């Protein structure tokens, strides 16, 4: 059962090959057996999952038939879940139980999805390796001595290891696409504003966006259909009609114009990854696509501007964790200042503290214009690059990451080298456009991802291209050995 995709599960449940309860119980047993080595879950919600599965079976018995009815999923542990710990991978929220469900959680459960638990992540989504979690590093099922990517590393590892067919993630600078690439999965970052951020703990509010991680584009379409849509509770949510993501999957690719930005193939890219990416381009050409060389001239400024904007927004967002209102409080504070200082110093990990300090500095009087404002101006230039590129092409294609999954601990003493791993993904967040990563082969047994970017609100186009590609290649069907 654990090898089935969401779409296959939907068919099997409809054909009564097994019940949602049977499926849920079998996956819960598998999680119990397999996850201790991987560490992909922070909290397994066994009782709630069985109750939800029983409810899904009852709904089906009374005539309902939604595609996600009874489908097992997991949530990145930054989506608030009522009465269940939502830790954000941090000690400071280790004791936090949200009083409400995030809109994404609510929508998926209304569709009948069964949540098996909360998935590990980099602390406050800050990281590309899932090593900054208070709950320990997550392992990559393709090589247990390597990282699964981050910050949605628990979501990626759990889906790659067939503990779950799909999971939610969030992407501020690549956190859905990069772990998907490093674990042979398909991960979609929707347009900024497409998926509600209500109840998704904020890291960098002008960049954060929730989205799905699954094995196939078809499954991402199923998930997105339930997750996306206008939410009056999120002021950045966009009131625009949803596409029929499933119907769009089958559109032929003849005439599709693909842009290959020269900046995505420059120095810093592993040559073998470049070859795998070009092999994917050849497959897409066979399906009728045409290819054009393009340029995104301001891409070189993306990392520096992101690493000003994201920490600046984080320093503001994370000021609410003060030891007073909720979360961790230090023992025996001598006065209020001591309470703030020690609760935050003891509650946050190194990477989060580093970013709060960088962000606070960037926003401080006298430096705002020099850093934050300048970074915002660069951001506009990056956006304009995409707008002009999309006048000539329908999608932009390149590698998702410059390197393969690295060894656990390898970049711990060099945060900048980890920041550089986001080079190809960050621009989509700065511009707000959607992006997808899809499996495109292996190098020395490690997965390679190809990234596709599209104009605003064209998630259906991305899912369509990835789906058509997945019908002619087999990469996404490969499972890590032993799983
Ligand atoms: N959250 C993300 O999208 C990951 C990115 N590597 C960051 O640390 O900001």
From TrEMBL:
<keyword id="KW-0436">Ligase</keyword>
<protein>
    <recommendedName>
        <fullName>Glutamyl-tRNA(Gln) amidotransferase subunit A</fullName>
        <ecNumber>6.3.5.7</ecNumber>
    </recommendedName>
</protein>
<dbReference type="Pfam" id="PF01425">
    <property type="entry name" value="Amidase"/>
</dbReference>
<dbReference type="InterPro" id="IPR036928">
    <property type="entry name" value="AS_sf"/>
</dbReference>
<feature type="active site" description="Charge relay system">
    <location>
        <position position="76"/>
    </location>
</feature>
<dbReference type="GO" id="GO:0050567">
    <property type="term" value="F:glutaminyl-tRNA synthase (glutamine-hydrolyzing) activity"/>
</dbReference>
<dbReference type="GO" id="GO:0016740">
    <property type="term" value="F:transferase activity"/>
</dbReference>
<feature type="active site" description="Charge relay system">
    <location>
        <position position="151"/>
    </location>
</feature>
<keyword id="KW-0808">Transferase</keyword>
<feature type="active site" description="Acyl-ester intermediate">
    <location>
        <position position="175"/>
    </location>
</feature>
<keyword id="KW-0648">Protein biosynthesis</keyword>
<dbReference type="GO" id="GO:0005524">
    <property type="term" value="F:ATP binding"/>
</dbReference>
<dbReference type="InterPro" id="IPR023631">
    <property type="entry name" value="Amidase_dom"/>
</dbReference>
<dbReference type="GO" id="GO:0030956">
    <property type="term" value="C:glutamyl-tRNA(Gln) amidotransferase complex"/>
</dbReference>
<comment type="subunit">
    <text>Heterotrimer of A, B and C subunits.</text>
</comment>
<feature type="domain" description="Amidase">
    <location>
        <begin position="22"/>
        <end position="463"/>
    </location>
</feature>
<dbReference type="InterPro" id="IPR000120">
    <property type="entry name" value="Amidase"/>
</dbReference>
<keyword id="KW-0067">ATP-binding</keyword>
<dbReference type="InterPro" id="IPR020556">
    <property type="entry name" value="Amidase_CS"/>
</dbReference>
<dbReference type="InterPro" id="IPR004412">
    <property type="entry name" value="GatA"/>
</dbReference>
<keyword id="KW-0547">Nucleotide-binding</keyword>
<dbReference type="GO" id="GO:0006412">
    <property type="term" value="P:translation"/>
</dbReference>
<comment type="similarity">
    <text>Belongs to the amidase family. GatA subfamily.</text>
</comment>
<comment type="function">
    <text>Allows the formation of correctly charged Gln-tRNA(Gln) through the transamidation of misacylated Glu-tRNA(Gln) in organisms which lack glutaminyl-tRNA synthetase. The reaction takes place in the presence of glutamine and ATP through an activated gamma-phospho-Glu-tRNA(Gln).</text>
</comment>
């Amino acid at each position: 059962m654990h090898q089935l995709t969401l779409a296959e599960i939907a068919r099997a449940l409809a054909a009564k090959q097994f019940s949602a309860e049977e499926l849920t119980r079998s996956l819960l047993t598998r999680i119990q057996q397999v996850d201790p080595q991987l560490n992909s879950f922070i909290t397994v919600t066994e009782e709630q999952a069985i109750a939800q599965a029983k409810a899904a079976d009852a709904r089906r018995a009374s005539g309902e038939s939604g595609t996600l009815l009874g489908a097992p999923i997991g949530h990145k542990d930054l989506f608030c879940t009522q009465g269940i710990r939502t830790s954000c991978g941090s000690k400071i929220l280790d004791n936090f139980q949200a009083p409400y469900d995030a809109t994404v959680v609510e929508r998926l459960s209304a569709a009948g999805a069964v949540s098996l638990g909360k998935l590990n992540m980099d602390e406050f989504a800050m990281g590309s390796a899932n090593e900054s979690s208070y709950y320990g590093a997550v392992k990559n099922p393709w090589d247990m001595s390597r990282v699964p990517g981050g910050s949605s590393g628990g979501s990626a590892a759990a889906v790659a290891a067939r503990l779950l067919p799909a999971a939610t993630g969030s992407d501020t600078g690549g956190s859905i696409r990069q772990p998907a690439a490093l674990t042979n999965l398909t991960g979609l970052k929707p347009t900024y504003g497409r998926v509600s951020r209500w109840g998704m703990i904020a890291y960098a509010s002008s960049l954060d966006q929730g989205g799905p991680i699954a094995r196939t584009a078809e499954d991402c379409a199923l998930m997105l259909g339930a997750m996306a849509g206008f939410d009056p509770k999120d002021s950045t949510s966009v009131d625009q009609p949803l596409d029929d993501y499933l119907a769009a999957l089958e559109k032929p690719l003849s005439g599709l114009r693909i842009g290959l930005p020269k900046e995505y193939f420059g120095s810093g890219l592993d040559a073998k990854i470049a070859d795998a990416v070009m092999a994917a381009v050849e497959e897409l050409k066979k399906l009728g696509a045409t290819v054009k060389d393009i340029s995104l001239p301001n891409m070189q400024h993306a990392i520096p501007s992101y690493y000003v904007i994201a920490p600046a927004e984080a320093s503001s967002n994370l000021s609410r964790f003060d030891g007073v209102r909720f979360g961790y409080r230090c023992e025996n504070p001598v006065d209020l200042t001591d309470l703030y200082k020690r609760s935050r110093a003891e509650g946050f990990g190194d990477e989060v503290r580093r970013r709060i300090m960088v962000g606070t500095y960037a926003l401080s009087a006298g430096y705002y214009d020099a850093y934050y404002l300048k970074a915002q101006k660069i951001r506009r230039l990056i956006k304009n690059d995409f707008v002009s590129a999309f006048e000539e092409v329908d999608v932009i294609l390149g590698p998702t990451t410059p390197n393969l999954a690295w060894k656990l601990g390898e970049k711990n003493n060099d945060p900048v080298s980890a920041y550089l791993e986001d080079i190809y993904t960050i621009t989509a967040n700065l511009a707000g456009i959607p992006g997808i990563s899809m499996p495109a082969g292996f190098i020395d047994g490690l997965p390679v991802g190809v990234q596709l970017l599209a104009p605003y609100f064209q998630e259906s186009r991305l899912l369509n291209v990835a789906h058509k590609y997945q019908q002619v290649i087999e990469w996404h069907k490969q499972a890590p050995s032993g799983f």
